[in-house]
Amino acid sequence: MSLIMAVPHAFSVAELKDLPTVLVSALSFILIPGALIFCLQLLQPGPVIKGAKGSLIDQYLFGIETKLGFLSGRSAYKFNALHEKYGTPTTPPHPISDPPLTLLLGNIVRFAPNQLSSNTLKGMRNIYGAAGKSNVFLKTAFYKAISRRNIFTAQDIHYHATVRKLFAPSLSPGCMAAHEPVIKGCIARFHDLVKTRMQRGSALSLNDLYYSLSVDMVSEVLLGKSLGCIERGRPFFWTEQLPRIFYWATIRDQFQGSGIPTMIKWMLRQILRKGIRQRSEEARMRLIREQLKATHTRRDIMVEVMERSESSTLPEDEIAENFSAIMLAGFHTTSHAICATIWLVLSHPDVRAELQTELRGAFTSTDDISLDVLAKLPWLNAVITEALRVYPPVPLGGARVSPGAYVDGVYVPAGVEVSTSLYALHHNSEYFANPYKFAPERWIDPASTDKKEAVQPFLLGSRSCIAKYFAQQMLLLTLASFFVEFDGTYVGRVRDWTTDSRCYAFWEIPDLKVRLQDRMASPSA
């Protein structure tokens, strides 16, 4: 019996007594043709890209496996697995040379009809380091779904250069040194909070506490005002929205045209409070506008930027938007890097012992800690760099649109999206021996053959993280203070963060539950 005949027949049987048959017939009549039409729309293999391998399922079904990786929280691992499976280098002839030249193609994999991923340093340089040249890889439409135009989302390279020129001088290493006392003050207040919580006798969950510290450090240095999250012991809701913003922007981008983002958004609106993102944005902008009008008691970054803004073409509203973007990005990435590094050190007793020996030999208390000395401690710097390699705070590089250019020897046609997976780059066995091992010694061993420049947690080129020196400063001071003052044991449920963490657009880090002892208060101190 045909589908067209099945439905009316079902409705005529004993006045709808056979309801299951009715439902099956009706759904079949509606869903099967719809599914066929949907699949026909998906069966678009995309342009021919020689040298970029990938799963046929992904290529012909709009990257369904990778998209499921985003939904299930396995995106970083999925991209890495694709590179390990399909990224075997080959030696094809150069397509534009005469006579043909032979060169080694890098690891470029195809995870959707019109999307590629790279895990090589050369590929990263081609994609992100081409600013100012004719073959610039511009940001994709994905960024428009994140927020209004700012230094992170802007596709216009001239606008980006204008913003960077305004903000970058105040975020340089020399200028950031002036803010060391402010950061140390935040850390001292944070340690007081931790010691108060320790009196309860149970293990502490440090995630929210370190997020609160990051919020106060960033806001006080950037805007000249602490938000008081350390004293509250938890962050404000609007400071935690970056992962959600990026997650929904990713879902919208990856499932564009499928109806899935609209469906999920409708479902969430039925169970969640409306306007969370809007209220979060309003709270951030209200804070920034208040600080723009306030009298500042010290030369924070906002004071310096606004002095330079008198000769800038940027209006005040756009300057405020860029303060908001830099602030929000700093909250999340800093706290996650701190927590991941603490977990890695506590999970490797030999690394912890050597770090404590180095730090406690250099400082008798946290009051003695200084950036000048920290910069010269080889093991501390090796630990932080290795932590950023193993567990980069932003595991997936931002996608760019090819202008029609080569990426690590592979010609990427115009309009194709390409990115570098930082997690896959940092775990590329061509660059690192035992890439999955947390081995800080690789950074100070003169016999190491690892390709050190392949670790790029802040990206590179003109679109690299504008606040990377600020982030490094916070990491050095915060981690040094922790291991000078406390002895700790990790007692969290997730035993291996490097394999069991969830990753959507960012990591969703496990609970950093630690049993702490105040070393300075112990009899053996």
UniProtKB/TrEMBL annotation:
Transmembrane segments: 20-43
One Gene Ontology term of the molecular function aspect: iron ion binding
UniProt KW Iron keyword: yes
Domain of life of the native organism: Eukaryota
InterPro entries in the record: Cyt_P450, Cyt_P450_E_grp-I, Cyt_P450_sf, Cytochrome_P450_monoxygenase
Matching SUPFAM superfamilies: Cytochrome P450 (SSF48264)
One BP term from GO: secondary metabolite biosynthetic process
Needed cofactors: heme
Record keywords, A-Z: Heme, Iron, Membrane, Metal-binding, Transmembrane, Transmembrane helix
Binding locations of heme: 465
UniProt keyword Transmembrane helix present: yes
Family: Belongs to the cytochrome P450 family.
PANTHER family named in the record: CYTOCHROME P450 (PTHR24305), P450, PUTATIVE (EUROFUNG)-RELATED (PTHR24305:SF160)
Protein name (Swiss-Prot/TrEMBL): Cytochrome P450
Species: Aspergillus mulundensis
Phylogenetic classification of the source organism: Eukaryota, Fungi, Dikarya, Ascomycota, Pezizomycotina
